[in-house]
Amino acid sequence: IPVAPEGYKSGFVGIIGRPNVGKSTLMNQMVGQKIAITSPIAQTTRNRLRGILTTPQAQFIFVDTPGIHKPQHKLGEVLVRNAKIAIDSVDVLVFVVDGAVDAGGGDRFIADLLNNTKTPVILGLNKIDQEPVKNQQREYIDQTYTELAKPHNWQIAKFSALTGEGIETLEQVLIDHLEPGPYYYPPDLVTDQPERFIMGELIREQILLLTREEVPHSVAVTIDVVEEDVKITRVLATIYVERDSQKGILIGKGGAMLKAIGSAAREQMQKLIAGKVYLELFVKVQPKWRQSRLHLAELGYRV
Ligand code: GDP
Ligand code: K
Ligand code: MG
User: Fold this and answer.
1) Ion ligand 2: residue ranges with CB closer than 5 A
2) Of 20, 62, 182, 256, which sees the most CB atoms within 10 A?
3) Which among 34, 38, 110 is the best mutation to test ligand 1's pocket, defined by most ligand atoms within 8 Å of the CB?
4) Is the ipTM of this complex over 0.95?
């Protein structure tokens, strides 16, 4: 890693918020490349994922997180505990909210979590490109977020993570909160995750988008082979499900669903590697305990 120029700034930017407010979309927009998968489905993001933006002035390491919601069970408590750790371990936070709808209990729950942190918070009012839902007035919506921010003295930044509107301003606001520091990552790197991990995620994204709620979120994907040839990169991947019925849905009539998943994922992968991809998908049924081992391995644990 090269030595950063005199006065160079760097630091970690945590992206938090309710599910589906656009955290992963924001990270992709900031780094200028799709590294985190996004979908209208909650719990699309499973792991903490870092996205790196290196500009002549600063290096930002964005930390995308799974959405925070009020815990209804033990696993939820773990999520909240992890979120708290994430909150305290970054230099600045973007608390993303959905600007197409008024502030709700979910946002206030997170605001309360932020009560005791020393980390500076920017309230990121996202989706300004979108028409307000539920016939609400934009002025009214904005007012509810002004009130959310007020007791904490949070600065508000308005933007669209989807179109990029307002993103440069957000970048400026963030720079002001960074201290002088080194390059934490090589300047040309956009994520801390290996390409293989993102490839698996791109397949999982298409499964979420195309099968919707029919295949549970527990589906796991492994990338088994990546062979780079001069003209094409050959990728073999396995999708693990828990039941035969789920395998049936994934494969579809005459293999139509798997074909659709494969061709959409392949297109995304071609963008990722900027080259041609040949993708072959396999579907395997595996009982839950085997899957959870797989999942742990995916998260970097030794199993
Ligand atoms: P996350 O769960 O907070 O990571 O949210 P995602 O990034 O997965 O986005 C959830 C949904 O909101 C997806 O369908 C996105 O396309 C959509 N979305 C995110 N940002 C924007 C935005 O600025 N404008 C609009 N119209 N949609 C957005
Ligand atoms: K989502
Ligand atoms: Mg996400």
Assistant:
1) 20, 44
2) 62
3) 38
4) yes
Going 65 to 71 to 77 to 81, the CA torsion angle's sign is positive
Rounded distance between C-alpha atoms, residue 159 and residue 126, angstroms: 5
Q: For residue 233, which amino acid is it?
A: T
**CATH 3.40.50.300 location in the chain:** 9-180
CA distance 246 to 107: 34
Q: Which CATH superfamily is domain 9-180 in?
A: P-loop containing nucleotide triphosphate hydrolases (3.40.50.300)
Return the ligand 1 atom nearest residue 21 CA. 3
Contacts of 198 (CB under 8 A, 6+ apart): 35, 191, 272
- Which of 20, 37, 41, 94 most suits a substitution to test ligand 1, by most atoms within 8 Å of the C-beta? 20
pLDDT digit of tens for each residue in the chain (303 aa)?
899 999 999 999 999 999 999 999 999 999 999 999 898 888 788 777 899 999 999 999 999 888 887 777 666 677 777 778 888 889 999 999 999 999 999 999 999 999 989 999 999 999 999 999 989 999 999 999 999 999 999 999 999 999 999 999 999 999 999 999 999 999 999 999 889 999 999 999 999 999 976 676 668 899 999 999 989 999 999 999 888 989 999 999 999 999 999 999 999 999 998 899 999 999 999 876 555 666 655 544 444
* CATH architecture entry for 195-298: 2-Layer Sandwich (3.30)
Position in ligand 1 atom list of the atom nearest CA 38: 8
Tokens linked to 99: 């600007």
Cα(134)–Cα(147) distance, rounded to whole angstroms?
20
Positions of CATH 3.30.300.20 in the chain? 195-298
